[in-house]
């Protein structure tokens, strides 16, 4: 009986946590404003579950501009040791509160009072880009901030709490390091006759040193909050970063730290769109294979590194390849597979050198060559995965 009762009190932490970006008091009671975390294992463990509550709701509300925070927990009943044979309900408050900036509200009335201050909010940093979507009915602005931007560090402490719920393997950054740059995107709107702002997402970039006196910016984190996804803001944010660094002569190229599959698709789309406008990536040039002048032009004009330039070349060449033309499609596949096979070839060369150097039987067995047929199967599988990724990018390019 106890076992059945225990299982009924386990809930998904992803399903009971609710976020809101509150623009006006009415949003607090409006369930249509709720969005939920993509993950919660970074707070509640790998099982992403909470035990010991009936009808549990965990509320994390932020004012849309200043990100003043309210944290509330509600439930109809809670397991206690005296009621449940010594079993204790999971601790919730401490696990979440230690991730929040000190000074968050636990009283909704106090939160509502602070909400009134949002009307005076002015974005931090320097305006980089402004644009509209939805046929001009929604307006957006992107700003760049530094660690030294007055007031921004405290603001960033509230902002970065989102990454725990939406970016896997996320960690808070050391905002005291003046090599960080922050790109913020806001919706600009009118409310009760006032010009207001709502934070929609942000990206962090670390400016690494590159010999002898250059920099190599690396995009570390990028997040567009769920209420603002699927409307092209990620591309606008990334493109704003590109534009910021493209004209700086001391920037070598722009790199990305451990990109997710979703971010890589975004990067591929934007880079393919931008490279398609370069002379070296014209259709007649693509037929000749990947050329050094492609890598050079992509790097000098767009700050794209050689590895990514090669990937963009393959995307754009697939775009002009007639897959129903057997010979044309075969040449394309061979070109991509030759590139995919380079690491394997290097590995085999290294193994061969070891075999020639060492004659010991145990080492010989450990360094035996893989079966050629297995490698061909693996290479074919790799190619199909890459082509599927490229077709997804091309579909988006065609929708422009």
Automatic annotation (TrEMBL):
Compartments where found: Nucleus
Task: List UniProt keywords, sorted A-Z.
Answer: Acyltransferase, Coiled coil, DNA damage, DNA repair, Nucleus, Transferase
- What Gene Ontology cellular-component terms does the record carry? chromosome, telomeric region; nucleus
Q: Does the keyword Ribosomal protein apply?
A: no
Its EC number is 2.3.1.48
Q: EC top class, in one word?
A: transferase
**Domain Histone acetyltransferase type B catalytic subunit C-terminal as annotated: residue spans:** 267-318
Q: What is this protein called?
A: Histone acetyltransferase type B catalytic subunit
